[in-house]
Amino acid sequence: MEEKESIQDQKFDHTVSEIHEYETIRHRRRRMLPRAALVGVASGALASLFGLVLSWGDDLRANLLNWAHQWPAAGWLVPVVFCGLGTAAAVFLVINKAPETSGSGIPHLKAVLHRFRTLSWKRVLPVKFISGTLALGSGLLLGREGPTVQMGGAVGDAVAEGLKLHPKERRTMIAAGAGAGLAAAFNAPLSGLTFVLEEVQRDFQPVVFTCAFMAAVTANITARFFRGSSPVFSIPSYPTPPLLSLPLFALLGIAAGLLGVLFNRGLIGMLDLFSKLRGKNALIAAASVGGIVGLITWFNPQLTGSGHELAEDALAGGLVLGAIPAFYLIRFALTIASYGTGVAGGIFAPLLVLGALMGLGIGQAANYFLPALVPQPAVFAVVGMAALFTGIVRAPLTGIFLIIEMTGNYDQMLPLLVACFFAYDIADLLKDMPIYEALMERDLSRNGIHAQLQIPTILEIEIEEGAPFDGKRVKSLGLPPGCVIASITQDGLEVVPTAQTRLESSMKITAVIDPEAADSVAILHSGCKTP
């Protein structure tokens, strides 16, 4: 019996305490909802302003390109110099003012919500906005959605600081702001909510859920007030594919899983390559990438920038099969190179374009051999966006809801489910880490977790099935002095463990970590995650 001691042995009647806890949660929810609404309105307004400025940048780049084409012999230098200088300026700003704004900023927010990093909204907001404008305005193959997510989180932090909220409530506002930023960028409130719960914070507590929901809805209403209510992509109303075509969507999912793993590893490799450069060399490399993007813009503007027009062409089936592999390879290489420079910009939009190209290519090939099963190849482009998103980010619900909300088309639900399942499973079988998780761990390992733990830190983490800690007693975990497991939660029951308590999968442990025991963060993560 002693040998089998577990958390279940410590149960007792919690009726009174559970009622009190329920009333406390309900009171907190009522108190936090107006604040979440404020975060949503502010995030929606900021995302709309960011989108407006970026549209001005796109117009400027297009007008400059048209002007330069008056001189075919030397005009190509204009977009090369314009994009190169813009990229170098964007990188300079990030390196010298706010390194945490590099890339999409989503890994930084995840680290903040896991208490590994702090968030300085006064620094993040202006640098993210300006660097993102310079980078995306230069035509780099990046998206505005990552920046709006980080800026939304910074807005949540600003509201929490102004209202002097408790640190836990502050983190809730940051998470809500992140979801609001995504909802406003894509006109997709359900996707914003799901992204917070599935990827950013992975916390389904009632307070987090309701705040994220409120912020996403109010942000979307605000964005629609400024930009209208049309879906992000305008596509024909395709009929539901026949059931016999589902194996083909499974093959699409397998391809998306493989290409997603390739994208993730290519992106990390490119970041590692650029991280070896310092000072002027980093700026020269960034300017070179911008110059290459500018040169390609001279010949085909569709291949650079966010790729919205190219995606719409793919979704409408307007590309020939012979051109799709070349388009895919060029955008794949330029996307990871653009992100590798370190400017402020996300990968949401570019990977959706890649997914549409991949899906259309597979759909057209299937139509050639099996026209009866694939009457509309462009349907595969729609499903391909969600499948590749799932293979890269490993957030299938967000991917499915995102595509449905962006296209306004619910007829492809079953193919979406099938393709996303196989994309997720293939990437998981290859033991590839989700991109934002990989980017966060890379950032923490490069900068040193020791430097982040300046005060005692609370870490909450769930034990996965088959993890090293699964089945072990607390006394045998090998945690250093200064790291204490304060509580264990399972099935809604929270108890204080003893040295003899045996840990099991699905338990959530809460550890208090002293700055001198910063090594225990890595120990806890490796012990709770399945190898």
UniProtKB/TrEMBL annotation:
Coiled-coil segments: none
Entry-linked PANTHER family: CHLORIDE CHANNEL PROTEIN (PTHR45711)
Protein name in UniProt: CIC family chloride channel protein
Topology in membrane: Multi-pass membrane protein
Pfam family, one: Voltage_CLC
Organism: Pelolinea submarina
Keywords tagged on the record: Chloride, Ion transport, Membrane, Transmembrane, Transmembrane helix, Transport
Keyword set includes GTP-binding: no
Predominant localisation class: membrane
Top-rank taxon, per record: Bacteria
Compartment(s) where it occurs, according to its Swiss-Prot or TrEMBL record: Membrane
GO cellular component: a single term: plasma membrane
Gene Ontology biological process terms from the UniProt entry: potassium ion transport
Residue stretches spanning the membrane: 36-56, 76-95, 125-143, 173-197, 204-223, 243-262, 282-299, 314-334, 346-366, 378-404
InterPro entries, sorted: Cl-channel_core, ClC, RCK_C, RCK_C_sf
A GO molecular-function annotation: voltage-gated chloride channel activity
Occurrences of domain RCK C-terminal (ranges): 446-527
